[in-house]
Amino acid sequence: MNRRKLDPEASAAAAFGDRLRRLRDERGWTQEQLAERCGCTDSHISAVETGRRPPTPRFAASVDAAFGTGDLFQRECAEIYRPSLLEGFREYVPHELKAAEIRIFQIGIIPGLLQTPEYAAAIQGGDVRRGAITEQQAQERLAKLAERQASLTRTPPPLVFVVLDESCLRRPVGGPEVMAGQLDKLLAFAELPSTVLQVAPYDLGERRSFDLPVNILTLANRSQIAYAESAQRGQLIRETTFVVGALTAYHQLQVEAASQAASVAMIQDLRKDFP
């Protein structure tokens, strides 16, 4: 029997469907048998397992009751409708973990790969206080961030090129102690042999190539993909035309941005403001 392959990293709905299929297989149940326990049709089970139909909260509750999994599926269902990660980002991360080269442009805040735990916790805590995410979702984000940061220490490490808009450095996050630690981390990052850190100063003006954050990955086979996001969503992009255009714009930005030496000097000067 041909079974549609599932990629649980693709989306929260795909992760739900993958877990549903795995637990059903572990118990030796057919889709018809699970459907009978859940009060639905076997075609509905099939559609949810393959991601063709998102689960409803009611369906998730019936699955938890059938499997005896507490509220596991109900929590995963909530993640579909109120995800802790932007759409597209879940698909992007596995590529980043294996990329040979990572290029980042960021506006407003320090990019995740360079954040200290305290800085990251302050950012997520702000989202929790505003009601944008739950405490559990904040913890899930921090866990995913730790996984991404750990991948930078693999052998051989990826080459990481980072251009920070000046706003990343001047926006205070978490108080003076947190900012001091974060600036120290940036300075240490700039000293690594596999990294380049530059600042795009405010006076770059209209010469700045991007108005939104963008990541560009070069994979082990030298193919390239891009990830761009707004406040509402993220998008993983493989189309060659877009990726080549984004890479060209990134190189133009690097030329216009301050050199690494000048960027480090700027960060060191800002560091003096935090004891």
TrEMBL record:
Domain HTH cro/C1-type: 20-73
A Pfam family hit: DUF5753
Taxonomy, superkingdom: Bacteria
Gene3D superfamilies for the chain: lambda repressor-like DNA-binding domains (1.10.260.40)
Protein name listed in UniProt: Helix-turn-helix transcriptional regulator
Organism encoding this protein: Streptomyces achromogenes
